[in-house]
What does this fold into?
Amino acid sequence: MDIHEYQAKTILADFGVSVPPGALAYSPEQASYRARELGGDRWVVKAQVHAGGRGKAGGVHLCDSEHAIEDACDKMFGSKLVTHQTGAEGKGVYRVYVEAAVPIEQEFYLGFVMDRSTQRVMIVASAEGGMEIEEISADKPDSIVRSTVEPAVGLQDFQAREIAFALGIAPGLVSKMVRTLQGCYRAFSELDATMVEINPLVVTGDDRVIALDAKMTFDDNALFRHPQVAELRDKSQEDPRESRAADRGLSYVGLDGNIGCIVNGAGLAMATMDTIMLAGGEPANFLDIGGGATPERVAKAFRLVMSDKNVQAVLVNIFAGINRCDWVAEGVVQALQEVQVDVPVIVRLAGTNVEEGQKILAKSGLPIIRANTLMEAAERAVGAWQNDLSMGHQLRIAK
Ligand code: GDP
Ligand code: MN
It folds into this structure.
């Protein structure tokens, strides 16, 4: 789960990282009022969206009057900000963060990520701040400092000092850098984050070390034990199909194709998507309904898949090990009776009680297209979808 910059800054500040004074606003008037409260004569007004690259996309404005703040807000509020991280449709701007502007002397990049090869938290830092890490690694790879943290002991002060020295920070500022690194690491590990990124971390003319930007991502599987983090979720920034699925305990990823997939098990879901592509089609989604596919779960899955207007055929691919094909078949039949499914449905069942499952599908009288193997199922799904387009929807399940 991603959170907003202002939320990440609040969290990091609690862990001892310095951030500029700032306040959140939901309207242009509120933004200028907030600026007055903050005081000073230069502010930064920043669109709060779950994406980086806002600066280059018109989502960060340096303002020196209340008038300029309202102008910047007028441009941003209600718009869709398109950055290189949002995709073409962009992300809606409904909140802005107003901060006292900071005079920048030096900019650093600081990132904390999970390094899968060492199975450790890795700190990635560079004195080339301000640029995206992808640009830094392409243009200035030698500037990147990497350091992995031994989980049994956590980030050690000597290690943090080494990073600070490697970045060439002035000796008088090393302790502030160490405090920043320690704060980020503690926030990362105590809150089950998967990513903390500060870009830029700046040194100011008056020798402060400040996080000018902050980004945090959390492990969804650990959110249950951090309710104070879970409540920071902002559904306006998520794919509505994915948030509906997450609310129902289903694992769903929306894709761009036309063939909806309902599958039990993530590995099988991947294989199903590959096979659909191999058969010449494109999956509309990745949907893992999990091990115990009860009729209710199958119905929920159908509802979710059918809420995607791009879906023109649905492929159900179930391998029943602990589960039973007859239960799944009953679920499919029940779902098709309850949910408006007006596209061809292809079902492939394999495993425990497959014969009974097939009988239930056959007896239902529903125009379900059955398949015995995954390849056959994928070919029939692609074929049904193409036929459906050319034959005027004759294969559709009429209600
Ligand atoms: P991003 O583009 O989404 O990563 O947003 P950032 O928060 O990193 O802001 C983009 C850029 O705006 C930064 O790299 C800075 O160059 C600039 N910026 C942001 N806040 C300030 C500030 O307080 N003072 C100054 N001088 N520049 C700022
Ligand atoms: Mn940034």
In short: Residues 392-399 have pLDDT under 50 and may be disordered.
